[in-house]
Each structure stands twice: as C-alpha cells, then as structure tokens.
Amino acid sequence: MKFSDLIMKVLLISLLLMAVAVCVVTEGELDFDDTEIDEGADAALKCDACRIVAAKFAESFADIQGNIVPTISPKDEEIIEAAESTCDGAWEGYGVKIMGGMERLTGPEADVKAGIVDNDPIWSRRLQDMCDELLGETPDEKTLFNTWASGNSLEEYLCKGAGTFGACTSDNWGPWPGDDYEDYDDTADFEDIHDEF
Q1: Residue 29, number of CB atoms within 10 A of its CB
Q2: Cα dist from 91 to 79, 131, 142, whole Å
C-alpha cells in the first residue's frame, strides 16, 4: 500500500468521523421540516383552503334555508347542526394543481378546476381541520349563518380578516391547523377520526 493511499484513507475516515460528530452534536437542533416550504405558495394554499371552507358553509346554510320559507330563519339547533356537519362532512376530491407556476388547491368548491396534480389524502384532513379551527374561533354558529343570510360574504368574514380569520390577508398565517397532531401524516387511520378544536 502506497503512502498516498494511506493518507487518502485517513482523510476519508476523518471526514466521516467529523460528519458523525456534527450529527451527534446537533441532534434535535436541526429542523428540516420547513426548509423547503415557499411561504408564498403555502399562503396561497391556505387562502384557497379557507375559501373552500367558506363555500362549504354557504352551501350548508343554503340547504337548510331552502327547506323553509325564506323570511323565516331556521331554528338555532338546525344552524348548529348545519355548521358542525359541514366540518364533519366528506372533504374528498381536493388536490393541488400547478397554475401560473404556483401550487393552488382545487376541488369541487374551488375556483381552480380540473388538472389535479396531487390529490394526497392529507388535503381532506387539512380542510376538515381548517373548518374546525374557523368554526371554533367564530363566536357561535348563528354568527356565521347571519353573516351568510344577510348577503355578506362568508369568505370575507372567515378568510380576509385578522388572526385566525386572515388566511387570505396574511403571508404568514401560521401552521396548518392540526399539523401538530402526532398522527397527522398517518392518513390510513384518518377516515373515521375527526379531532375537533
């Protein structure tokens, strides 16, 4: 074995040991979860999700109002049931489409139609969790219904305000609701599980 080969092996082993040492020293300090997230794209997806949730609430309220005379308001129990069943309902058929170089959430109630690129089951869970989050932060279900019944936009109320209601007005709305659940990526077990906020 040549002296130069021996030096190369020693250098390679040294580099490998240094890499292992760095990994051991920084264990728990490195967070790669958010390093590849484009905040602008994530903000657009959150806004799309909020708009979809607002449309689902409007659809639910139209369904209960359609069953009675338009000048009579539904009973409080009917309003509560309609709002809660919106969040508990099926959130299937949603996915991501590349549009104008940006990822956009699309599905039955979305403005962006067809051409789904990624229909990962996580979208049904994220939409359901966002629905719960928005409903939980609303003073009560009747407030949502009255906003809709008065002709005001639920999208405006739920998505273009401040704080929790600012998914379309903030570039950094925060994490997706429910992202901190331990089983969040385990979509196989999600079908009949629904954690409310």
Answers
A1: 6
A2: 20, 10, 23
